[in-house]
Amino acid sequence: MAVGDVEAVGAHCQMEYCNQLDFLPFRCDSCHGTYCLDHRLETSHKCSKAGAWAKARTGRSTVSSTSSSPKPNILNHEKQCAATTCKTLVDTPLTPGVHCQTCNRRYCLKHRMKEDHGCSKLTPLGARPPTFSSAQKEKGMAALTKLKSWGLNKKAAMSNTTNLPILSKSTSRKSAASNLAATNALKTAAKGDAKVPVDKRVYLHVEASADTTKAKYPTGKFFYSKEWSVGRVLDVAAKALQVENINNRVVGEEERLRVFHVEGGRLVDFSEKLGDVVQTGNTIVLLRGVGPPVPDLIEA
């Protein structure tokens, strides 16, 4: 093969004093020169336009980011599909959002149809909170009356145990032993966040009212932190019992979950601290559509 044929295959390095023939030469994006492997970097061949390619690239990015229709940055995007079981972010470059004109919410493509996001059960955002129908009021009051009666019976049973005659010491010891055994059984079976310190835990029986809501697991035994708010406990309990919880997506009380403390005989407010309301061994019940808390349902 002739020398001319060999030189036709590659190119000579343009670096001064190098001029090496390279069969796979490198092209500098800044000065557009041709260099060998050793001098391909801008610092290696003392590029006369060092950084030009980077500046040009940055300029293009700036122009695109300041266009009239910027796309949202998914890293700073917080809007998610309004469907209760969906965590998909909408209005992103990859997932457009679809606005429902009926309930005034935005959904992903999967839940865009009314029947897919339960539109008929939702209160439109911005609309006036619906008033309870007479049937709904009766249903809620019946559930509260039943729980009030249950609470009264438990309170009476506890009072009878405390006021046992002095002569029945053996009965008193048996009752105390039975209560201790029940508490130990509750602590053994209870589930919860392992990160909660043992000295901060309160162990509870948790139920979902079958009269006002549906749950996959109607009852359970759980522990929570005494420092948690009742609202946080409600969210965790609803998830554990698999009760639909859309408190943060509804305006009125029709679909809102509330917490009833059986021993205290009242609905407790979301902002109350759990440790100020309940004690280990107590029972709380999740109800739906019973209205805001009304204190002191059970008289002292």
UniProtKB/TrEMBL annotation:
Residues 7-55, 75-127 form the AN1-type domain. Pfam families: UBL_ZFAND1, zf-AN1. Keywords: Metal-binding, Zinc, Zinc-finger. SUPFAM superfamilies: AN1-like Zinc finger. GO terms for cellular component: cytoplasm. InterPro entries: AN1-like_Znf, UBL_ZFAND1-like, Znf_AN1. PANTHER family: ARSENITE INDUCUBLE RNA ASSOCIATED PROTEIN AIP-1-RELATED, CDC48-ASSOCIATED UBIQUITIN-LIKE_ZINC FINGER PROTEIN 1. This is AN1-type domain-containing protein. It comes from Microthyrium microscopicum.
